[in-house]
Design brief:
With about 450 residues, the protein is of the alpha/beta class. The protein folds into three domains: about 140 residues, no CATH class; about 90 residues, GTPase HflX, N-terminal domain (Rossmann fold); about 190 residues, no CATH class. It contains 17 helices and ten strands. The chain has a four-stranded parallel sheet with strand order 2-1-3-4, with helices on one face. Helix 1 crosses helix 3, helix 1 packs antiparallel against helix 5 and helix 3 packs across helix 10. It is flat and about 90 Å long. The protein starts with a helix and ends in a 7-residue tail after the last helix. The model has no long low-confidence stretch (mean pLDDT about 80).
C-alpha cells in the first residue's frame, strides 16, 4: 500500500478499536445495573459517558505504544490477537482505575470496571473480525488489477507477498519475469500484451541495471511501478522511508522506539524507578552502612558504560570490591574464579542487590528499567569486531534488566546468545514485553548462578 492507504487503514482500525472499547464500557454499565440491584439506585448514564473521551485517549495511547498499528493484521490468528489485546487492555484498565481514583466528581462502580475489563477483549476481537470482513468484501467487489512481477528466484516470495498487501483492491499476477534467467528484449510489447496495470520489481542491486534503459518507457505504459529494495543483507530491524525534498531516503535498522512508544516507555521508567527507590530504600540504607565496613572506601562505585547510540554514561553500583582492585589488572571480564570481591560484594553480586542504585540512572535518563545490559567501552571495542550485529543493541537505552538476563544469559556465558536475546527484544519491543521482563526478573533475575 502507499502511505495514504496505510494511513487510511490505520484510521479505520483505530476507529473500530475505539468504537469496540466504548461499546464495552456502555455494555458494562448496562449489565451492572440491569443484573445487580443497588440500594442507592441507578446512577445517571451521563456520569459514565463523561469518561468516554478519557477512555479513548488512554486506550489509543497504549495501543499505539504496544505496536498494534505497526503490525499487519491480515493473517493474525484469533489466539495471537488475544495475546496482544488482553495484556494491553489490562494495562489500560489499570490506568483508567488510577485516573478515576483522582477524579473527585464521582466514585465509579468497581463491578463496572471488572465487567469492562472482561468485555473489552470480546468486543475488540469481534470488531477486528468485522473490519477484516469489510476489507475482504471491498476487495472482492473492486475490479482486479493485473500485476507483473519482475524478480529473481531468491526474491520471488517478497514480490508475491507485496501483491497481497499492495492496495485495498484485488491484485492478479498475470506473469513473472525472472531476470536472472532471461529478460524479454521488448518490455513495452510485454506490458502492452498482458495489459499490465502495476509492476513490482524485486531485484538485487546488481541486476537493477537491466531495467535502467527501459524504465522511463515502461513508466509511460504502466500506471503503477513499485521497486522493493533488497535490504535483507543490511538490516535486522524494520527499515523506514522518508521523503526529503521529494526524494526517498531509506533508513536501515530503524528503532521501534519512536514517537508515542518512547514517551510511554519513559513514563513507565520514571514511575518504576520512583517505586523501586521507595520500595528498596530500607535495603539500600542497610547496604550503605555495611559497604564501608567490608572494606575502606566510598559506598557507591561509578563505572563508564556505553548506552543509547554508543554514548557513554556513568553507571552506579554499590561497591563490591576494594578501591584498588583494578589498579594492577585493569578492566577484567568477571568470571566464576574472580576472587576480587569482598565478602559483602559476593553477597551483593549473587543477589544482584549491587545494581539497586541504577534506579537513579533510570531517573536521570541514562538507562531504562528494561533493555540490553550496558558494557564498558573497552569491552565494546573488542566485541564489536568479533560479534556481528553487536552494536545494534545500542539502538535502545541500556537496562537494569533485559530479555537476556531473565533467560539466564548473564555473567561469563555465551555473548552470541546474549546478543540474540537483545536483538529479539529490540525487534519485538512493546510495553507488555517490558512488563513481562520486569515480572520475570522478580522470580528469575535477582538470583542467578551466573551472577558473580
Amino acid at each position: 500500500m502507499n502511505q495514504k492507504q496505510k494511513q487510511l487503514v490505520r484510521i479505520v482500525r483505530l476507529t473500530f478499536d475505539m468504537a469496540a472499547v466504548v461499546m464495552a464500557w456502555i455494555a458494562a454499565y448496562q449489565l451492572r445495573f440491569a443484573l445487580i440491584e443497588t440500594p442507592k439506585g441507578v446512577p445517571p448514564f451521563g456520569l459514565y459517558l463523561k469518561l468516554v473521551p478519557f477512555i479513548v485517549v488512554i486506550w489509543a495511547a497504549i495501543f499505539f505504544a504496544s505496536g498494534f498499528y505497526r503490525r499487519s493484521q491480515a493473517r493474525r490468528s484469533a489466539v495471537l490477537e488475544a495475546l496482544d489485546i488482553i495484556p494491553s487492555c489490562g494495562l489500560a484498565t489499570l490506568a483508567l482505575v488510577a485516573f478515576t481514583y483522582f477524579y473527585e466528581e464521582y466514585r465509579y462502580s468497581r463491578i463496572v470496571m471488572i465487567m469492562f475489563a472482561a468485555l473489552q477483549p470480546v468486543f475488540l476481537i469481534t470488531a477486528r473480525s468485522a473490519m477484516r470482513k469489510l476489507f475482504r468484501w471491498y476487495r472482492r467487489k473492486s475490479p482486479a488489477r493485473n500485476v507483473l512481477l519482475v524478480t529473481t528466484k531468491g526474491l520471488e516470495r517478497q514480490a508475491i507477498a507485496a501483491t497481497d498487501e499492495m492496495d485495498l483492491v484485488r491484485s492478479r499476477v498475470v506473469g513473472t519475469v525472472f531476470v536472472d534467467e532471461a529478460a524479454p528484449a521488448d518490455w513495452l510489447e510485454l506490458v502492452a500484451r498482458m495489459e499490465v496495470h502495476a509492476m513490482i520489481v524485486a531485484l538485487p542491486y546488481r541486476l537493477l541495471g537491466v531495467l535502467e534503459d527501459q524504465l522511463a518507457g515502461i513508466a509511460d505504459q504502466v500506471p503503477d511501478i513499485r521497486i522493493i529494495p533488497d535490504m535483507s543483507r543490511f538490516t535486522r530491524f524494520a527499515s523506514g522511508i522518508a521523503l526529503v525534498d521529494g526524494r526517498p531516503v531509506i533508513s536501515i535498522n530503524e528503532s521501534p522506539l519512536a514517537g508515542m512508544g518512547r514517551l510511554i516507555k519513559r513514563s513507565v521508567d520514571i514511575l518504576g524507578a520512583l517505586v523501586g527507590l521507595v520500595l528498596f530504600a530500607p535495603v539500600m540504607a542497610v547496604i550503605a552502612i555495611l559497604v564501608p565496613l567490608s572494606s575502606p572506601g566510598p559506598v557507591l562505585y561509578r563505572q563508564e558504560r556505553m548506552g543509547l547510540d554508543g554514548n557513554s554514561f556513568w553507571i552506579l553500583k554499590f561497591r563490591s570490591m576494594p578501591v584498588d582492585a583494578e589498579r594492577k589488572t585493569g578492566a577484567v571480564w568477571a568470571k566464576p574464579t574472580d576472587n576480587r570481591a569482598t565478602w559483602l560484594g559476593r553477597l551483593l553480586r549473587g543477589s544482584s542487590l549491587d545494581e539497586l542504585p541504577q534506579f537513579w540512572n533510570v531517573l536521570r535518563g541514562d538507562m531504562s528499567l528494561v533493555g540490553p545490559r550496558p558494557e564498558r567501552p573497552v569491552f565494546v571495542d573488542q566485541f564489536r569486531r568479533e560479534i556481528p550485529g553487536y552494536m545494534l543493541r545500542h539502538k535502545v537505552k541500556a537496562g537494569i534488566t533485559g530479555w537476556a538476563q531473565v533467560n539466564g544469559w548473564r555473567g561469563d556465558t555465551s555473548l552470541e546468545k546474549r546478543i540474540e536475546c537483545d536483538l529479539f527484544y529490540i525487534q519485538n519491543w512493546s510495553v507488555w514485553l517490558d512488563l513481562r521482563i520486569i515480572f520475570l526478573t522478580v522470580f528469575r533475575g535477582f538470583l542467578s548462578k551466573n551472577a558473580y
